[in-house]
Hints:
The structure holds two protein chains of two kinds. By secondary structure, chain A is of the alpha+beta class. Helix content of chain A is about 30%, strand content about 35%. In chain A, about 30% of the residues are buried. Chain B has helices at about 25-30, 65-80, 85, 95-115; strands spanning about 1-15, 40-50, 80, 120-130, 130-135. Chain B has a five-stranded mixed beta sheet with strand order 3-1-2-4-5. In chain B, helix 2 crosses helix 4. Chain B is of the alpha+beta class. Classes of the chains: A alpha+beta, B alpha+beta. The interface of A and B includes residues 2, 3, 54 and 58 of A.
Amino acid sequence: MKAYFGRRYTISASHRLHTEALTAEQNQATYGKCNHPHGHGHNYVIEVLVGGEVNAETGMVVDLAALDNAVQERVLDRFDHANLNLDPAFADRVPTTENLCRTVFAQLKDALPARELDHLRVAATENNFFECFAEG
Amino acid sequence: MIFLTRRATFSASHYYWNEAWPEKKNLEVFGRCANRNGHGHNYTLEVTVGGEPDPVTGFVVDLKWLKGVMEREVLSAYDHRHLNLETPEFKQQIPTTENIAIAAWRRLEPAIRAAKGAKLTRIRVYETPEIFAEYRGEA
């Protein structure tokens, strides 16, 4: 019987939305306040949904401690209280929440058992969120 | 298809224990949740149904009706109860959040199907704001 288990984590990080591919005026027009030169920060909420068979002995679909460890090592230790623009993942990509969502998804997909990660949601504020789904 | 979700809360106590295991293994696997005196949570139940809006009312389902179904089928059994001791489905099964989501589906699905309107598509049960389980039936 397949069920899904979800867990919410938070990171606080700074970023600036800016790309060398655009002029200063174009950056300002595209990113608005997010282009301010010294960056700004968010409390990001990362919601991880993993799916699998409910283990008959434990009643659980996932080892919560293993999930926490994977998220801690792959995501929280790396991105919490960090400047996203300085992370290698964003050396040539703008650290939008979309790109953060894809980066975190890729990090966790490799760290969790195959096909376990179903869905990832990253919210930069209470009013917006971005989602990545396992393909297929 | 439109999906509509209704939320309700219930407060219940539980503990995690597998009778087939020795005490040591229960404590190792379940940690503090294995305290046989139980502990409690404020659960949030989210019920999602899918269907087409009725051309006259514009409703996928009548929310008052859905509220009543949730209260009758789930909340009356779980709210302010000890899940291990007072609900038949958890005499044999451990009341993990995953199993509560599946059990809530089994309680709700026949009543929603009998109404011949929207279909139950998803149950989500939050044990805390940080932890939840989801069940979407057997595809």
